[in-house]
Structures are given as structure tokens and as C-alpha cells.
Write a structure and sequence with these properties.
It is a single chain. With 186 residues, the chain is mainly α. The protein has eight helices and two strands, in the order E-H-H-H-H-H-H-E-H-H. Strands 1-2 form a two-stranded parallel ribbon. The radius of gyration is 16 Å and the shape is elongated.
Amino acid sequence: WLLLDDSPMQMSRKASGPSQDGVSRVLHMVGGQVALLVRQGRTKLDPQTHSRIVREITGETVMALVHNLLRFEVDTFGGFTVVQDISRVECFVRDVLYPHAHQYEADMDVYLSLLGGVKALFSVPKQALPDILVPSPFEPCPLLDVSVCRDLLLCRGGAEPEYAVTAEEADEVLATAKQRRGRKGR
């Protein structure tokens, strides 16, 4: 489900993307607002922000925006303690970004699959966590950096405290998953 790696998440480039400055500019411009809209369950942006996203959109921008949104949720709101929060992100990707990035649909399909994996990460018992963090050869997934996976693990719990994971347990889960991935080979 989630492919662990020490490097930042990679994404396919089907066209020449903007410079890193361009990506940062888009994230700075819309990241907080998008996170708020997603939090409210809305799928519309104001016309000015919407036109900026559409004008700047590339596979790299889309993935960076959604990836940043995951981290923004973790940092600002205490993470995805409710699966419904992840569903809102899925709706945003599908309803707001999808219509304007047809050439990057494959990237977004993969990311929606990844979000499904994150949902699973919040719904399985602790002992099953390493299993869903070991990549399956049948599930193409982007790389998600280890720090984000760790943040997400620490956000488990919420209404079900027995699902909560301590920092030590999170490190152990990540180490176990990485070890199993090594045994399976890449």
C-alpha cells in the first residue's frame, strides 16, 4: 500500500514541470486555503485561486500540492484521526484537480490509491501495520517519505485510543516494514 523510502516522494513527469520555485510558489499561494476548503468539505475554489492552479498545473504541482496537504493536515489539525478527512482530500483531487490535468490522470490515480492505503493505515490493528507498509508488486505507488509515514502513524487513535501508536512503536513499525521490503527485494 505505502512504499517507504528515505527520499522524498517521486512522481512521473510526462511534461517538463515548473522549477522548484514554481512549485513552492503555488504551494505557498494555495496550500493553506486548499487545506481549509478540504477541511470544510468544499470542492470549489475562489475564481482567482482556481485560475492560478489551472495555469500552473503540472504533474509535479498536483502531487506536491496534495502531498503538502497531507503534511499540512498532520501539522495543523493533528492528523487524520477520522477516515472522513481523507475522503475529503480524495474529493478535492477528483473534483477540483482532475478536470484540469488530464495528462496527469495516471499520477492522480496512483495518489488516490495511496490515500486508500492511508485509510487502511488508520483502520487496521497495530500488529498489522508492517504488513500494509510493505509494498505489493501489484500496487504501483509513489514514494512517500518516511517522516510523513511516521507522522501519520503518530496520528492514529482519536476515538479509539487503543489504536494509538507511540513514537517508539512507530519507529519499530517503520523499521520492520523496511526490513520486510528488503527481504522481498525491489
